[in-house]
Specification:
two-stranded antiparallel ribbon, 65% helix, mainly alpha
């Protein structure tokens, strides 16, 4: 008080200079109001209403005087409030709060005044002496005393105490509070929470809420606190120094208890023996740390310094340790569950867990920067979480899971083994009903599991850290198996929420992979890891766990090794020798076994039979004994008690039953334990004896057959003088005895890779192991291991989603499953897992109901009114469109759905004919409308399914339609609505894109799609129903569509497409839509592909030979349309056809049409296009074109003019021969020229032969025109250097035979249909004369000229004598002498016919004139008068010279020219 009076006087000196600012005046008024309020409440009480006597004077009470004194001075202070010591205006209120003379109402008002000053920020960090002021407030409030007048007023005071303490922590000046005061605040609030257990519900809720707010305020500062708290500590003892200075706080708290001995029924106080949990905990911790730091005053002084510093980590450590201790109240505080005001079984743990969760939420990852806090989480907290995780209370379990989730989020890198233990021992156990968990527990565990699955990288980290760790369980695989099994509904229909939760978890896993695919290119499939040489697998380490380039290959290698080890474990369980042999072959054990490697295999391999391990280790074989000792050395027993070490050791195998084996096992254990922990035991024999004694004690205490149990004294007496002849400490033996009695040593451990029930000893082992375990691998958002993970999760996920989807009845569940299916498809496609995608498609197609509906009515009900079926149908076709590259066998199921929609009339013809119609000149304009429009405007199938013809031969390719023999009733509104829904669904499926955009499919997928179409078409074709025929037609259209859309990859498809069409063509004997579509499709393929595939021209054209194999009835039905297509093909691609084979196919198809009444005109137009003016005549097609033209000329179909035009084409083709001959002379060397001239001669003969046959036509116009055309061909080649004997052959084989045939026809009286043969004979004679005269130069060089000349004369003589209808022809009688005369004159002028000449000779001369005389007796005198004898002699001499120059005759070509 003296200090305060001094400050009052200083302030009074400046009263005259004061100038009040509005802010300063307002604060003064506020404090004045609070003074008046307190005084007013005090005056209500008679005790405070008057004065009291002190000697002779009447004085006011000290509390009233201080308040009035403050009131007098408050408006006279000249300085700013920041320069005023807060204690000056706080002290009177705090005195009221501290006084035990005041009642609850007065104390409550004083507390309210302090609260108001704090919340108005009257002082802050910049105010002088703010630290002392804050300390005064905390000290006063935490030591508040008052008289209890009624329970209600007491509760009000307690509430206001909480209010003020919370305001202190939230105040801007809270940073100056010391660690000691913060701990005091938390301790005081917890006392109020404790006392509130007997008070009203309102006080209880406010107290707990305040406690939560305090924890939030305190730990929210942790991220901003640096490790400055340790600056005063000695190096190397940071953790211990944090706790070393808490003794002062502890003593302070103890003084509160000593001063608070007022009956709670009379006075209110905050001290209570049962509520001193934090104080006692701090005391014990401080004592322990003081002894460890410096013994005595050094530790106390250091702790005092820490506790007086501004609050930070030391106070947080103590508070957090206190919160952890609340989870085990009975052990740390001494509360019995029934005596605790809070319900121990649920309320206290739940309250403590909530506070801990708040601390973790606010502190976050900052815990990892402070070793002591981190150690509390790793050890104390997590061990308690493991225990309370198995609580029967769903509330506690839920809170525990929330805390673990927060810890994973913030501190997963520091809690590797703790997380594994939690999942294996808590979550996996509770989520399965076989462990006896209630449904509520299972649901909470499953919810927690799904929450973890939703974390972006949780699954990847579980797989990398545990599944790829040899000594760990397969957490990822176990989790996936658990989710998939739980998702399967036990009863139908789906009823349990756990099924949906498990499904959400599986889908979350897949969607996580989906999201990672979007963050980068998927990792390629990991190559097979081969271990070429033996390397100890337990010694393999990663160079850098933070670099994916290092840890990704490392974990893949370790996973490979782990799989091999598990296979080896399976062999070992069937026989140790088999297991070792397998592992030696896999290079996981050395070729020559050594004890060290075998011991590590037995120690760290998951899945070994623990019974076999025990038998092997207990074997008396020397090698097995060596393995046993090496096995014992693999354990870390440092700083462990003997019973804990023994428990850990025996947990890994089953202790053999034979005493000798037990002896060997315990000897190995004792040696290893003694080498690592030599604290009390003096030698390994002592460890052995004590270990054996513990085994006997364990059997004695926990065997029900033992009636008389060993007492503690018995146990101590039995172990006398075993420690090197001395006794062990009694306390040591007593602790061992109590531990064994309380917790049995399990000599028959649980089988399997998972964690057993979490006991204290196992937890100690886990903490030891965590010090040596590999660092926690942190995964980023790139898909490093998703391929391996997806291979594990895909199958179970698809199966689980399929079952849930099948049993579900809720739209939300449907959509969830659909999203999952699409995510699976995306990931499977990204990793090119065709089998997964096929399985998915096959599974989904079953839910469409398309494959199960047989009739339209069933289809409308099953599909139109079933949203599930429509949703899954959209999903199927979405997968087909997006990920078709990686579908293989699934195409058949997709195609079955398409065919069923087509069968029911819900698919537009555009689906199959899009590609064809786009290029077809005959494409219907209706094809241009989009699919959506055609669907929405389609006729209702239940009445009449009206589908327009598709393809190029539409009238023969009507698709499947429903039975319309009987009229049907109008559809109902429900049917119309169902139909509309179906139409909209199909529109959203974009089915046509599968086929029209097939060019983007990968080769393997495209081939599988084509094979599926062909297989479906083949199946439909084998049946005889009209509907199946329509399906076969539709399949063929689809096949043609994808063929045309993949012209760049036609070689991939062509073989199968050709075989499919060939089977259709050759197996069809009657006209039908299928064969019509096959032929038109084949022609369309050729027409579309010929311009782009020059290397396939011959193969494509060869395929058209299938048309020639059509049954006669089929060919006749479609001949016109086939010819039209062939004509278009020729006109578009004539320049691209080069081979004789190709032209033979084309011209064979055209020639067939010559006798077809409807197709002949189209076929002739195409032939004329080829032959007119020799535009497309080639040496390779010349003979073929001539033969085709001959057939058109001979055809009686059509008008005579067409035959005449055909003859003109034949005659005009001779110009091509002449042109080729001239080109050959100029461009080709001699050897090639000779061959070309020979080929031209052969072609010419074939042309002559063809025309010669038409010269015998019974139609006069054709016959006569053929003779004229033949004459043109014979005359037109005089400029070609044909072989000389070729003319002789032409005369012998064609001209003379034609003349003979004509005479025979003319003289045959039965040939009534041959009109005007006389004119034909006249033309024939003119042909003979003209051709002979024009070719005489070549003929006279032939050795057969004499025979040829006599043949000409013989023909003239025959024609001179011929009788037509019984009389000679006057025209011939007049014509022949003139023709003969001209011939003789030419021969005379050429010197060919000369008496005694070298060419003719006397016999030819004589023979000639003997024939001439029979034709025209006086002709010799006219041609050779007697006065010309000298000239004749001269001509004979010249002819002799010419004979000498004649070249040898060419070889005969009769074999080339034939009559037929």
């Amino acid at each position: 008080m003296g200090c305060l009076e001094t400050q009052y006087s200083i302030l009074m000196e400046g009263c005259e200079k004061r100038q009040f600012t509005p802010r300063r005046a307002a604060i003064a008024c506020t404090i004045n109001t609070e003074i008046g309020t307190v005084l007013a409440v005090m005056r209500r009480n008679v005790r405070w209403g008057g004065r009291f006597m002190s000697g002779d004077d009447q004085l006011e009470h000290f509390l009233i005087q201080s308040l009035k004194g403050l009131r007098k001075q408050i408006f006279t202070w000249p300085n700013q409030w920041q320069n005023i010591n807060p204690a000056l205006y706080l002290q009177p209120f705090l005195d009221v709060i501290r006084s035990d003379e005041t009642g609850a109402p007065i104390t409550g008002v004083a507390l309210s005044s302090v609260y108001k000053i704090l919340t108005l920020d009257v002082f802050d960090l910049n105010t002088i002496n703010v630290k002392d002021a804050m300390h005064l407030i905390v000290d006063a409030v935490t030591s508040c005393r008052f008289e209890v007048t009624d329970p209600a007023s007491e509760e009000v005071v307690l509430m206001k105490i909480l209010q003020v303490l919370l305001a202190c922590m939230k105040s801007k000046a809270s940073a100056v509070l010391s660690n000691q005061h913060v701990c005091t605040i938390v301790d005081t609030c917890f006392r109020v929470v404790h006392q509130a257990g007997t008070k009203s519900e309102l006080l209880q809720r406010i107290a707990r809420h305040t406690m939560h707010e305090l924890i939030r305020c305190i730990f929210s500062r942790l991220p901003d606190v640096e490790s400055v708290d340790y600056a005063l500590a000695d190096a190397g003892n940071l953790v211990e120094h944090e706790n070393a200075g808490l003794d002062n706080k502890c003593n302070y708290t103890d003084r509160q208890f000593e001063n608070g001995n007022i009956n709670s029924e009379v006075d209110g106080e905050l001290s209570s023996p049962s509520s001193s949990a934090l104080s006692s905990l701090v005391a014990s911790g401080a004592d322990q740390n003081a002894n460890g730091v410096g013994n005595g005053k050094e530790g106390d002084s250091h702790g005092l310094r820490l506790m007086k510093q501004p609050y930070g980590v030391p106070s947080m450590v103590e508070i957090f340790q206190f919160l952890c201790s609340l989870l085990d109240v009975a052990e740390h505080v001494g509360m019995e569950p029934k005596s605790n005001a809070l319900a121990f079984d649920e309320d206290v743990p739940l309250f403590a867990l909530g506070l801990i969760n708040s601390a973790i939420e606010l502190g976050g990852s900052s815990f990892s920067r402070h070793p002591r806090l981190l150690k509390l989480i790793q050890d104390d907290l997590f061990f308690n979480l493991m225990k309370f995780g198995l609580s029967m209370s769903p509330l506690i379990l839920s809170m525990v899971c929330s805390i673990v989730l927060n810890l994973y989020h913030h501190l997963h890198t520091e809690l590797k083994l703790q997380l594994e233990a939690f999942f294996s021992s808590v979550i996996f156990r509770l989520a399965q009903s076989r462990y006896g968990a209630s449904y509520q527990q299972q649901e909470v565990a499953m919810e927690a599991l799904v929450d973890f699955c939703r974390q972006t990288n949780f699954m990847v980290e579980m797989y990398a850290n545990f599944d790829c760790e040899i000594t760990s369980s397969n957490v990822f695989e176990d989790l996936v198996n658990l989710l998939s099994k739980t998702a399967f509904p036990v009863n139908s229909p789906l009823s349990a929420m756990n099924n949906i939760l498990a499904l959400d978890g599986l889908i979350a896993v897949i969607q996580g992979m989906d999201e990672r695919i979007g963050d980068g290119p998927p990792a390629s499939e990991s190559g097979t890891t081969n271990l070429d040489d033996y390397t100890p697998f337990w010694m393999i380490r990663c160079d850098d766990y933070g670099d994916p380039g290092n840890w990704v290959p490392f974990v893949r290698q370790m996973k490979f090794i782990k799989r091999k080890l598990m296979i080896g474990a399976d062999h070992f369980n069937r026989g140790p020798k088999k297991g070792f042999e397998y592992l030696q072959g896999s290079h996981l054990l050395p070729e020559e076994l050594d004890p060290h490697s075998v011991a590590y295999f037995l120690r760290y391999t998951v899945g070994l039979d623990k019974n076999l391990i025990g038998d092997y280790l207990g074997n008396h074989d020397k090698f097995c004994v060596q393995v046993l000792y090496e096995y014992a050395r693999t354990f870390d027993f440092q700083d462990m008690s003997l019973d804990t070490a023994l428990r850990i050791f025996l947990e890994t195998f089953k202790l053999p039953g034979e005493s000798q084996k037990i002896q060997r096992v315990l000897e190995a254990f004792s040696e290893s334990y003694y080498e690592q922990s030599r604290h009390i035991l003096v030698n390994k024999d002592a460890a052995l004896l004590l270990s054996y004694s513990l085994i006997l004690l364990n059997t004695d205490q926990h065997n029900v057959q033992v009636k008389k149990k060993m007492t503690e004294e018995d146990f101590i007496r039995n172990n006398r003088r075993i420690n090197g002849g001395n006794d062990l400490p009694r306390e040591f033996l007593s602790q061992l005895y109590q531990s064994i009695c309380r917790d049995e040593i399990r000599t028959t451990p649980e089988q399997g890779a998972g964690f057993p029930d979490m006991t204290h000893s196992i937890w100690i082992y886990l903490m030891h192991k965590s010090k040596k375990t590999a660092p926690y691998i942190v995964a980023d958002t790139r898909p490093y291991l998703d391929y391996e993970m997806f291979a594990i999760v895909a199958g179970p996920t698809i199966a689980a989603m399929s079952v849930v989807f099948d049993h579900a009845e809720d739209e939300g569940v449907y959509q969830t499953c659909i999203n999952g299916f699409l995510a699976v498809a995306k990931v499977a496609a990204a990793y090119h897992l065709q089998d997964v995608l096929d399985d998915l498609v096959i599974s989904l197609c079953k839910f469409t109901t398309l494959l199960s509906s047989s009739y339209l009515e069933e289809f409308l009900v099953a599909f139109g009114e079933d949203s599930k079926a429509r949703m899954v149908t959209r999903a199927v076709f979405t997968i087909a469109n997006r990920y078709g590259d990686y579908i293989r066998t699934g195409w058949r199921n997709i195609l079955d759905c398409v065919l069923r929609l087509h069968e029911f009339g819900f698919l537009s013809a555009r689906v199959a004919t899009d590609a064809i119609d786009d290029s077809s000149p005959t494409a219907d304009s209706r094809h241009e409308k989009p699919l959506a429009k055609s669907l929405s405007s389609a006729h209702f199938p239940s009445m009449v399914v009206s589908r327009r013809p598709s393809g190029l031969m539409g009238r023969f390719s009507q698709l499947l339609s429903f039975d319309t023999e009987e009229p049907r009733s109008q559809p109902t509104d429900e049917e119309l609505a169902a139909h509309q829904r179906i139409a909209e669904t199909i529109q959203q499926c974009h089915i046509n894109n599968i086929f029209t955009e097939s060019s983007f499919l990968q080769a393997d997928s495209l081939l599988q799609l084509a094979q599926a179409i062909m297989a479906a078409g083949r199946t439909s074709r084998e049946t005889t129903s009209p509907g199946d025929e329509g399906t076969a037609v539709f399949c063929l259209e689809l096949l043609i569509t994808i063929t045309l859309n993949n012209r760049d990859r036609i070689s991939l498809l062509w073989k199968g497409v050709y075989e499919h069409i060939s089977n259709i063509v050759q197996s069809t004997v009657m006209p039908c839509a299928l064969v019509e579509k096959a032929v038109s499709g084949l022609l369309s393929i050729c027409q579309r592909l010929l311009p782009y595939k020059e290397n396939l021209v011959d193969e494509l054209l060869r395929s058209l030979q299938l048309v020639l194999k059509l049954d006669a009835r089929v060919a006749d039905a479609y001949c016109e349309h086939i010819t039209q297509e062939v004509g278009r093909l020729v006109k578009a691609n004539a320049t691209r056809i080069r081979s004789q084979m190709g032209w033979r196919t084309i011209l064979s198809l055209l020639a067939i049409t010559a006798r077809h009444p409807e197709a002949s005109e189209v076929g002739f137009d195409a032939l004329a296009f080829i032959m007119s003016e020799g535009a497309h005549l080639l040496p390779s097609n010349f003979v073929l074109c001539v033969d085709a033209a001959r057939q058109f000329a001979e055809s009686r179909v059509g008008q005579v003019e067409r035959s005449v035009q055909a003859l003109n084409l034949m005659a005009g083709s001779v110009d091509c021969l002449v042109r080729w001959a001239h080109e050959t002379k100029v461009a080709i060397i001699d050897e090639d020229a000779a061959q070309m001239f020979q080929d031209i001669g052969e072609m010419w003969l074939r042309l002559v032969q063809g025309l010669r046959k038409n010269c015998l036509d019974n139609r006069e116009e054709v016959r006569n025109h053929a003779i004229l055309s033949l004459q043109k061909c014979l005359v037109g080649v005089h400029d070609i250097d044909l072989p000389h004997d070729l003319w002789s052959q032409c005369f012998d084989l064609f001209i003379f035979t034609m003349l003979d045939d004509l005479i025979g026809i003319a003289q045959d009286q039965s040939q009534k249909n041959y009109r005007n043969m006389e004119g034909t004979l006249v033309l024939a004679m003119k042909l003979l004369s003209k051709v002979f005269l024009l070719s005489i130069d070549d003929l006279m060089r032939s050795t057969s000229f004499r025979k040829l000349w006599l043949g000409v004369l013989g023909q003239m003589e025959k024609y001179m004598k011929v009788k037509i209808r019984g009389k000679r022809s006057e025209q011939l009688q007049e014509l022949l002498p003139e023709l003969l005369k001209n011939t003789l004159l030419v021969m005379k002028a050429a010197g060919v016919l000369v008496q005694g000449g070298a060419l003719s000779g006397d016999d030819l001369w004589e023979l000639t004139w003997s024939h001439v005389d029979r034709i025209a007796p006086n002709l010799q005198s006219e041609v050779f008068p007697v006065t010309d004898s000298d000239q004749l002699q001269h001509q004979a001499d010249e002819s002799a010279v010419q004979v000498a120059a004649i070249a040898p005759p060419p070889p005969p070509i009769e074999a080339v020219v034939s009559e037929g």
